[in-house]
Amino acid sequence: MVRLSLKLFFLFAGTIVLLSTCKKDEALIVPEERSFPLVDQRLWPYFEAFESEAAARGISIDLVEEEITGVIEAIDEEHVAGQCSYSPFTPGDVTVDDEFWNNSGTNFREFIIFHELGHCYLKRDHREDSDNFGFCKSIMRSGVEDCRDRYNTQTRHTYIDELFFPGNF
Ligand SMILES: [Zn+2]
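Above: inputs. Below: predicted complex with zinc ion.
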């Protein structure tokens, strides 16, 4: 049973790669949504948003070229919504906890995925400091310190500025 589902998964993954290859050719004529062959398709809008938020700030980022991967699966450690692992030999693997994913809206998902790409792509460490009201200055906070999150549609722009230009904050 397990073996069968694994096989199906690989078939499915193979299909995605093929499809994305076709899409690439078509994109020469009609620009389409970007595809990220190494990333769970549910994460694509967030990966694309990360690139376009960078582009809007004059930074060119190609997560496909960087071979950043992304999966949604159970993270055993409690209260961990996402993680990034990278080494000199692997470019960066983003994991989003499936339970977190199922119970979160777009905003919180973006927060976590941008945080992990902050580690995996920008190679940022955690930043724990807070403003005068106790709100975290950065979405790169670890979540285990005192500052409180305030990532929403109003604050999003500033938090993303901080993500790409931490020295200005
Ligand atoms: Zn982190």
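The chain has two domains: 1-32, 36-168.
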